Amino acid sequence: MKTNKTIPPKLARRLLLRFLRDDLAEEVQGDLDEKFYETIKTHSAFKSKMNYWFQVFNYLRPFAIRKNTSYHLNHYDMFQNYFKISMRNLIRQKLYSIINIGGLSVGLTSFILIFLYVQHEFSYDRFFENSDRIYRIYQRQIGNLAMGSDYFANTPAKLASVLREEYPMVEYATALTGHSALLSYEENRFLESGLWADEHFFNVFSYQFKYGNPQKALEEPKSIILTESLALKIFGYDNPVGKTLIHQNGDAFLVSGVVFDPPENASIKFSFLINILANHWFMEEIDQPTWNGNSIHTFVVLRQGVDPKELEEKFPGILKKYRDPKGYVDYPFEDQYILERIADIHLQSKVNEDIGLKGNPLYVDIFSIVAVGILLLACINYMNLAIARSVKRAREVGLRKVSGAIRKQIISQFLGESILISFLAFLLALGLAYLLLPLFGTLMERPLKFDFIGNKFLLPGLLLLVLLVGLISGSYPAFVISSLRPIHVLKGKIEGKLSGFRLQRWLIVGQYAASIALVVCSLVIHLQIRFVRQKELGYNKEHIIAIRSQGLVDKYDVIKNEWLTNPGVVAVTASSDLPTNIGSSTIINYGGSADDDIAIYRWRVDQDFLKVFGVQLIAGKNFDSTNVTENGYIINETAAKALGWTPEEALGNDLNYDGGRSVIGVVKDFHIHSMHLAIQPLMIMPAQIAQFGRWGYVNVKVRPENLTQTIAFLEKTTKKYSEYPFDFQFLDENYDQLYKSEMNLGEIFGFFTVLSILIASLGLFGQAAFTSAQRTQEIGIRKVLGASTSNLVLLLTKEYLTLVVLAFFMSIPVAWYAMHNWLQTFAYRINLEWWVFASAGLLALFIANLAIGYQSIKASLMNPVASLRSE
Fold it and tell me: What Å distances lie between residue 641 and 338, 649, 668, 828, CA to CA?
């Protein structure tokens, strides 16, 4: 028995066969093996193997080594030949080329658009220096649900200074809050959105300065920093540093710097920054030894190597040390402070009173899956069409093999064709994406753009994608067709080899299952949006103009009376919030014990709110217009129920809140938030406009006739008494904004649904063409034997319609699960009816019939003589 010690070294034999000329290799190896077995009889195994290695190296001389020069030349010529053949095939098979390139370009266009959106969503706030060490602090008030969440972005005003002064692990900390202000320069007025911020703002956020010193720009309390665009609007192209702007409160602020506009992917945006030390309320807060309330955003930069959990562990001690013991003695909630990386803020959508434009991580995941899915559908479509063409190209492959082509070369040829088609599709997709990007960006409410210079990985990434698409799309046909035996190909016996692959049919099933699931999702989203837009809200939102109350506070009664003289104006009321989104809430205790606490929303209005909004009063009375400040409260049905009262029983009861006013009326429930949230307890409080000032609204109910003239009258009257711009919106449009993301989701889903069905139908078209080509002779025989055209069409379509039915049943659980979970985000929603799924299935069958019908009818109408001639 031979062992490893008594046989020639395997590595030496492989080296010999790898480098020796083919005509010498077998003979030389035989001689060396024979000498090895003779030597080992008289010498040790080690010496025999060393002698074998010496003989191998002795043969590796120039005359015996395999020549590779000609191979490289032939290799280049071969690829040149492959390119010519690929181009000829594309030109010759125009229909298949158009379908292949068109299908892949559609898939690539979809992928590019969604890729740019996803990339933009994940790019927020990553441009800051040390962005990996910048954290914002937000809090959770366990049990204090507001807008469906107990997370809040605001923190105490004093927190930033405490962290800077007492915790060395914090390198920088800054306090800021939003601030909308009317700025004046000479005779011009500018209403802008900016920030109150402390002097450490630019230590945390590395915004670039055009003019001024970032280290000293906010040193002085009465200093203001402008963005480049605002400076251009106010001062033109002059350097504004050192000039003075008048704030709406009458204070003069010195321009100390100009920064370049914050980029589009910044959560913290502003047109100006004012030193927060000029805010009298803030100064009072930080001068207190303790705190009682939350109204400031706090950001920190941790030192290198500090784990954020180390700081989070300090928060309970900070709360215990600095919270006002008297103010929190009856506080019913448990507070937790949390650190969050600044790069994660944009996709954190469950924090109340948050800062910046918010994204939706669920939609990012959905669109990512859709992008990959549509691209895979396009690749599958190419595979099916390539296999359909393989029947006609099988003889070409057979002749190439007979002529000496090896399988690797044939695979290279087909993969090369696939990559070429993928590249042509990519060029077309770039053009389509460029044209569609503005529309897509508008739907997604994002400033999407191609930026090959700023985004250095974009172009290499897309080119790598093209290569992968080409390899994936061409792999299946390349490996299948290259595996055919020449003798079978040249005799036309390839049916068994190709049709035995059931993968094609499963790919068709997968394509249509995905398409049907998308159809179901699109229908459900459309129906839910229609439901929330048509559902009875409990108040009137039509023909109501909401105007910001800023600038109207001092002259409200005069302006209101003047407006009411116009026949186009029905009624006027002031409110702290719009009924579409009432955000202020509090806790009331009606029984004395901690168990009697209930959370209740607050809405401050004047006595005419019933006339404007049409809310139905079901018990009690409205506010007394003669003495608003002495009125009681009006609550809604849900609040009465939560307090254990019927509407009639609620009247006259004390709510134990703000001076112990009693309930004077109960209104029928109306929606105070979007349909995502259930109707909550509501307390409607009497107020004068001065109590909520510029943060509130003046709501004007108008007649639909002569609406343009009425709005012009309102604006003209407002400008007589106010320096502020006439800032208004229609209440019904404001309501629609609550569902803007869902409406955009529905439109985009509908668009990609159409694309997926188109691609799936192209794949089915290709598969039908493949089957028709394979069954040509069978069809001819059946026609000779008397089969009718309708019988043949049924024969050819039956199998594929069965695949579509199978796809339908596969798609139902996936679509149901996805839409069931999505609908759970709405407190008021439609039911998933059976007819929605049935409609999607019938639509898929109809489209499949169209895709198959052309090929089936074409095959059934062929002359049987032509079909049987080859036999």
Answer: 35, 10, 12, 19
Q: How long is the chain?
A: 871
φ, ψ for residue 785 (rounded to 5)? -85, 0
Residue given tokens 């005069």 in the structure block: 558
Q: Which residue has the tokens 């540093």?
A: 241
Please state the rounded mean pLDDT for residues 509-532: 90
Q: Is the dihedral of CA 302, 305, 308, 314 positive or negative?
A: negative
Residue from 355, 318, 224, 227 nearest 277 by CA: 224
State the Cα–Cα distance between residues 759 and 773, nearest whole angstrom.
21
SS (H, E, C) 132-200: HHEEEEEEEEECCCECCECEECCECCCHHHHHHHHCCCEEEEEEEEEEEEEEEECCEEEEEEEEEECCC
CA dihedral 734, 738, 742, 745 (to 10 degrees): 50
Classify the phi-psi angles of 369: left when phi > 0, otherwise alpha if psi is within -120 to 50, otherwise beta: alpha
What's the one-letter identity of residue 580?
A: T
Q: Helix crossing, 94-121 with 407-444: angle to 10°?
A: 50
- What 3-state class would DSSP assign to 688? coil
* 3 state SS of 391: helix
Going by C-alpha positions, the residue among 170, 162, 223, 232 that lies closest to residue 197 is 223
Asked if 584 contacts 576 with a C-beta cutoff of 8 angstroms, the reply is: yes
Give the 3-state DSSP-derived string for 310-329, with helices as H, strands as E and coil as C: HHHCCHHHHHHHHECCCCCC
Residue 59 pLDDT > 80: no
3-state helix/strand/coil string of 218-257 = CCCCCEEEEEHHHHHHHHCCCCCCCCEEECCCCCEEEEEE
Phi (first) and psi of residue 150, to 5 degrees:
-110, 20
Distance spanning both ends of the chain, measured CA to CA: 57
Q: What is the pLDDT of residues 609-663, one digit of tens each?
A: 999 999 999 999 998 766 655 678 999 999 999 998 999 999 988 887 776 678 9
Predicted pLDDT at 589:
74
What is the bridge-based pairing of β-strands 188-197 and 272-275?
parallel
The closest alpha carbon to 438, from 428, 427, 450, 429, belongs to 450
